[in-house]
Amino acid sequence: MLDPRKLHLLRELSRRGTIAAVAEAVTFTPSAVSQQLSALEREAGVRLLERTGRTVSLTAAGHVLVEHAHAVLEQLERASAALAAARGGPCGPLRIGAFPTAARVLLPPALTALTGAHPGLVPMVSEIDPADVSAALRAGELDVALVHEYDFVPPPADASIETEPLFREAMYLTVRASVAAARDDAWITNKPGTLCHAMTIRACQAAGFEPDVRHHVDDFDTVLAFAAAGQGVALVPRLAATAPPPGVRLTRLPLARRTLAAFRRGNGDHPAIRAAVTAFHTAVPHLPLDDSA
């Protein structure tokens, strides 16, 4: 019988690429991860890993088993959700991840609605970049999260994660009337590795140039303050531009950011997850969004 916990480690190895990265993600030692994967090979009766020095890669059989691991772990999530529903209404801790704009604008009314409808739930919120959400959900560090995706930046594929759309908002450019008009300007972007940074770079590339990035700033209020101080131009989403500082002109662009709820595949019907997503939807009509975004 194959052990689901070992299947989880194999799936993580397929995504992270090294034993050390898997160990860090699951808070095991590298030797413990290696031992568990060796035990999984014995249970499977076939080689799953190809070891060359310190490098480890999946064999063809390993890749086949990872595909089955997705299905097995999804069914276990469905079983957990069904048992939770059988126990009654949602209760207990609910770990919610959110990027800063959503945490500031969407979560306060959503949490009010959630705890009002389900007083037995204990929401626990952590700010997290959407690029890190999949790993946190798979590791069980989060139960549900608010993530975003941009035009020009397709969401990363992860067969273990499901998403549900919540809302769409327009993107705005500070100072200039178009991205092309900002070709010779200094730019302010989020840190490299974030979806926001990738969106800015690709929007500029689509306009035919590489941006001169001078500042890497994650907080959009600070981005707008820099723009007001003449330190560069930036792309900002609607919810981050509700009260721009004096002197900052904003031009709406034909670009958008979409916010979604994310959770482990198979776990969407868990009473606590469904209650949270319902609360997110309840809060959306109260957001200052453009009607035609």
Automatic annotation (TrEMBL):
Give GO MF terms, alphabetically. Answer: DNA binding; DNA-binding transcription factor activity
Which cellular component terms (GO) are annotated to the entry? protein-DNA complex
Question: What top-level branch of life does the organism fall under?
Answer: Bacteria
Q: Which Pfam families match?
A: HTH_1, LysR_substrate
Cross-referenced InterPro entries, in alphabetical order?
ArsR-like_HTH, LysR_HTH_N, LysR_subst-bd, WH-like_DNA-bd_sf, WH_DNA-bd_sf
Annotated ranges, domain HTH lysR-type? 2-59
Question: Keyword set for this entry?
Answer: DNA-binding, Transcription, Transcription regulation
Q: Entry's PANTHER family?
A: LYSR SUBSTRATE-BINDING, TRANSCRIPTIONAL DUAL REGULATOR HCAR-RELATED
- What is the similarity comment for this entry? Belongs to the LysR transcriptional regulatory family.
Name of this protein: DNA-binding transcriptional regulator, LysR family
Q: Which organism is it from?
A: Nonomuraea maritima
Q: What is the lineage of its organism?
A: Bacteria, Bacillati, Actinomycetota, Actinomycetes, Streptosporangiales
